[in-house]
Structure formats: C-alpha cells, structure tokens
Design a protein that fits this description.
The complex is a heterodimer of chains A (188) and B (177). Chain A has helices at residues 2-9, 17-30, 36-46, 52-64, 69-112, 116-144, 148-163, 168-187. With 188 residues, chain A is an all-alpha fold. The radius of gyration of chain A is 19 Å and the shape is globular. The longest helix of chain B is centred in the middle third of the chain and has 39 residues, at 66-104. Chain B has 3 domains: 1-104; 109-135; 138-177. Classes of the chains: A mainly alpha (188), B mainly alpha (177).
Chain lengths: 188, 177
Amino acid sequence: MPAADSAIASPLAHVSRAALFASFLKMGLLGFGGVLPWARRVIVDERRWLGDREFAELIGLCQVLPGPNIVNFSVIIGARTHGPQGSLIALTGILFVPVGVMLLIAVFYASVAHEAVTRNAIAGASAAAAGLILGTAMRLLMHTRPPLRGLLAGGAAFVAVGVLQWPLLWVIPALIVVAVAAEWRASR
Amino acid sequence: MSADVQVLGEIAARFAALSLVAIGGINAILPEIHRVVVDVEGWMTSAEFADLFALAQLAPGPNAMVVALVGWKVAGVAGALVATIATCGPSSVACYIAWQWADRLRESKMRAVAQRALAPIAIGLILASGYTLARGADRSPGAFALTLIAAVALAWTRVNPVWVLLVAGVAGLAGLA
C-alpha cells in the first residue's frame, strides 16, 4: 500500500489543466535545440512535479517505448494529471503550438536561406544545441550517480548506439535484459 | 487536388509505419525518413533535407518537429500536420497503453528494479544523441569548441540554455563556427 500511495501523494495528482498546458507550452516554446534540457528544468527545478531520479527513470521508460521521447514524456505526464485529455493538452503545448511557430519561421527562412549570414548563424547554434544535449546527459549522470553496473550499462548504450551506430531494435532489448538481471541480483 | 490528397495519403502511410519502430526517439528513424523522402519518393534533395533538419534544431520545440518541416516541404501546412500526427500518433497511443499497464505494476518489485536499470541506459542514449548531433554540427574546430562550451555550461551552471544558443549563433555570425 505505501508504494501505491506514492502515486496519490505525487504532486502530479493536483496539477490543473491550465498549469499543465502552461508548463508544456513553456518547454515547447523555449526548447531550442531540443526540449529535454527545458523539460528537466521546468518539471524538476521549477514545478517540482518530479525528482531528478524519477525524471531520469521516466525518460528511461520513454526511450524504450517507440516514438519521440519527449512526446511520450508528454503523453505520460499528461495522463498522470488528467488522463487522455491531459495527454492531448500536454501534446498541444509542447508539439502542436511549436510546430505552428516553426512553420512561420520556415516561411521566413525560405526567403533568406541562401544568405551566408543565415548559414553561419545556424552553424553556430546547431553546434551549441548538440552541446546542450551532451550537457543534459552529464547533469543527469551527476545527479543520479549510478552504481558501477549502471555506468557499464549506460556506457554500453552510448558506445553501441552513438559510436558504433548499431540498430536500436537489437541493442536496447539486449541491454535491458542484462541490466535488469544485474539490478535484480543486486537488489536481493 | 486529388494529387495533393494522394501525396498526403502517402506521407501518412509512410510516417505512420515508422512511428512504431522509432525506438529511442526521432533520431532512430531519421536515416529511414531521409531514404524515403530523398531516395524513394524524390520529394527533395539530400541538401534540402539537411537544411530542414538544421532549421528544426534551431526552432523552439521537440527535435521530432523535423518531420513536420519535411511534410511542409512536400505538401504545405496540411503536409506538416499529417506528418506530425502520423509520426507521433501511433507511438503516443502505444505509450498511453504501455503506461497504464506499467502503472498497475507500480507496487511490484520488478518495476522498481526495471526502472533503476533503465535510468543509466537512458543517460547513455541521451549521450549518444548529443554525440550524433555533434558529429553532424561540428565541421570546424570553432564549432567543436561551441559544443564543448555549451555542454559545460548546461552541466555545471544554471545558465539559461536559450542564451547559450543565442551567443553561439552570434559566434557563428562572426565566422567562428
């Protein structure tokens, strides 16, 4: 029963539709170069709806499910507040409104795409965008401090998917089986 | 008109099929999307696809929005909407169902064990995404330095990520990337 209570006691149970929409809209509209850094900032630091470890675990779940991680994240957080309607509210804020904004930018960009100025600015910003994702991984690593078996599993995921570019469909299920088995043994 | 509807149907079918194999996120299916829209359908050149990807990175919102831009390039605003819903719809429904199932297991020890096991793998995959993006973006020592500075700034300071991107954009304007 205490484990079930943690769901009821979660701050997510008391989030209003307006707060849900506002938070996901903020993540969507401020999420330059990827929403993940902002998702952590808004959900963990500002709203305190999840702790760092809970956030990392939820992202972990979202990454093993098919589909864009941040879209899955929005579906689940939305569902935990207001069911299917909450999922749609979260997705509207984080995905559909930003898509509209992006199309306006795209129309403008199409008119200046050939300018050297535009290309240089994009080169700088996209280099930094990659760094922000790397920094997010570093931050999660420092906050969750996985044991050695976790570091090995995470390191294997990075090398297999990032460096060797092996197919995720093979790498991830295999890694999960090994990591869960190791974690199960350690928990006994 | 009927040609437009046909193209929209083509986008819907192609992208919806990819939705459920997008394990690990949009980066996992981008090479396949590239193959379909450039090589199979001939809707755009490889260079145009790369431009759209950079633009989606720069615009605020999920990286997955690149599929909306691809749809827009092919069939305008309707194409953007169809591409977004086709890519995210099936996986979202699957996610909702999986979450309900996972929620019933909340009390089980196995779920706690599985989640503890998954968190470090997730971090490894985020690292892999950043590494993949960096390999695409870092075509000069200056760009590499910008990536490094941005990573350090996000990991060890509380600086607003938007400022990091704006400063890097200005550095790019100055010819540093």
